[in-house]
């Protein structure tokens, strides 16, 4: 059975940053890229807020660059999905990992960077305009809609936070809430309701997005009267929650009530020795590429220290 010193699961900014640090420290990391190689950034068009790119960078191009950088130092980047894990409870023990349900490997340290997936409404028109008016991250993409009217859907803290963020850039923000109340904290709701250029449409659901090459309007339905109308908008932001990709770790690692992995505060270590978590899989608050990269770096440094102490 193959034995690996440092296994990295997932290939977003957290995983690749961990790979760069781990390979430069000669841990000979092996990365399995998972179902969405490159992670969530491959679904956006332009990344404008990652330091070091004064003119912005295409999300796919940036992830290709990160991959090249990790490979330059010897990271073994492999296609494959980790389908099962059995983590050791002993310091220095081997962690058992199954790839694509067939290949068994053992790893002395594991960095989990499987990310989270934004939830979408599931409308065909939403998929059609993905990256062309549809976004699940206002902080990432809001700037591209500066000076334009936008619509955002959701009623939680994310929707409230993103609506107020967009209201600083856009003349009008329409927030679609499917019930007659928001789930967001009172403080966040008050901020939304006191922002003059945010209009909240209660009991309202999205029917479809309209437009040619990109979004031009959002057809909505009042859930009480059944009345339909179209809101002119160039941007449609979905903020109905994220799902961390942690199903395979259930029963082995500690998670919060929504499935995010818990780590020691200020560190990336989990409850199992030699198992670290970095990026969105353990962060439901910031969820940025740069914060994911930061925790990826931390995880690799912690793995290096863990492995170093064993020898
Ligand atoms: P939440 O799960 O809290 O909220 C999701 C919202 O989307 C709900 O209002 C829900 O409506 C709505 N929704 C779900 N599905 C649909 C749908 N198909 N159509 C329309 N609306 C839909 O997710 P968040 O991302 O907002 O927050 C996740 C966690 O992160 C929370 O614990 C939150 O407090 C936290 N957070 C904290 C922040 C902070 O402290 N600054 C910032 C952002 C998030 P309904 O209520 O009807 O179910």
Name the structural class.
alpha/beta
Count of DSSP H/I helices: 7
Tally of extended strands?
Answer: 19
Bound molecules: NADPH dihydro-nicotinamide-adenine-dinucleotide phosphate
SSE pattern, N- to C-terminal: EHEEEHEEEEEHEHEHEHEEEEEEEH
On the 0 to 100 scale, the average pLDDT is 96
| CATH homologous group name of the largest domain | FAD/NAD(P)-binding domain
Describe this structure in words.
With 311 residues, the protein is α/β, with parallel strands linked by helices. The chain has two domains: 185 residues, 3-Layer(bba) Sandwich (FAD/NAD(P)-binding domain); 119 residues, FAD/NAD(P)-binding domain. The chain is 24% helix and 28% strand. It has seven helices and 19 strands. The strands form five sheets. Strands 1, 2, 5, 6, 7, 8 and 19 form a seven-stranded mixed sheet that branches. It has a five-stranded parallel sheet with strand order 10-17-11-12-13, with helices on one face. Helix 5 links the parallel strand 11 and strand 12. The radius of gyration is 21 Å and the shape is elongated. The model has no long low-confidence stretch (mean pLDDT 96). It binds NADPH dihydro-nicotinamide-adenine-dinucleotide phosphate. The site of NADPH dihydro-nicotinamide-adenine-dinucleotide phosphate has 17 residues, from helix 5.
Layout of secondary structure:
Elements: E1 2-9, H1 13-24, E2 30-32, E3 46-47, E4 57-58, H2 59-72, E5 76-78, E6 82-86, E7 95-99, E8 103-112, E9 116-118, H3 124-128, E10 134-135, H4 138-141, E11 150-153, H5 157-167, E12 173-176, H6 186-193, E13 198-201, E14 204-211, E15 215-222, E16 228-232, E17 235-238, E18 242-244, E19 275-277, H7 289-310
The site of NADPH dihydro-nicotinamide-adenine-dinucleotide phosphate has 17 residues, from helix 5.
């Amino acid at each position: 059975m193959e034995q690996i010193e440092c296994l990295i699961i997932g290939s977003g900014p957290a995983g690749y940053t961990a790979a760069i640090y781990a390979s430069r420290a000669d841990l000979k990391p092996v990365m399995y890229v998972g179902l969405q190689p490159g992670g969530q950034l491959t679904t956006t068009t332009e990344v404008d807020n990652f330091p070091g790119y004064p003119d912005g960078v295409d999300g796919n191009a940036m992830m290709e660059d990160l991959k090249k950088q990790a490979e330059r130092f010897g990271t073994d980047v492999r296609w494959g999905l980790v389908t099962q894990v059995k983590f050791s409870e002993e310091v220095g023990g081997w962690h058992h990992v199954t790839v694509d349900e067939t290949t068994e490997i053992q790893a002395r340290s594991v960095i989990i960077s499987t990310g989270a997936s934004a939830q979408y409404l599931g409308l065909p028109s939403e998929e059609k305009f993905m990256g062309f008016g549809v976004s699940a991250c206002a902080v990432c993409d809001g700037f591209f809609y500066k000076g334009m009217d936008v619509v955002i859907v959701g009623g939680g803290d994310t929707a409230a936070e993103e609506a107020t963020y967009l209201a600083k850039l856009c003349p009008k923000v329409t927030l679609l809430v499917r019930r007659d109340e928001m789930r967001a904290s009172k403080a966040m709701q008050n901020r939304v309701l006191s922002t003059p250029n945010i209009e909240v449409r209660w009991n309202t659901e999205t029917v479809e997005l309209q437009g040619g090459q990109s979004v031009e309007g959002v057809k909505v339905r009042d859930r009480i009267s059944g009345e339909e109308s179209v809101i002119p908008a160039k941007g449609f932001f979905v903020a109905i929650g994220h799902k961390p990709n942690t199903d395979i770790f259930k029963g082995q690692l500690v998670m919060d009530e929504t499935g995010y992995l818990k780590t020691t505060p200020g560190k990336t270590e989990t409850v199992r020795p030699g198992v670290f978590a970095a990026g969105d899989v353990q962060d439901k608050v910031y969820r940025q590429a740069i914060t994911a990269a930061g925790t990826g770096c931390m995880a690799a440094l912690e793995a290096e220290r863990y492995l170093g102490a064993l020898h």
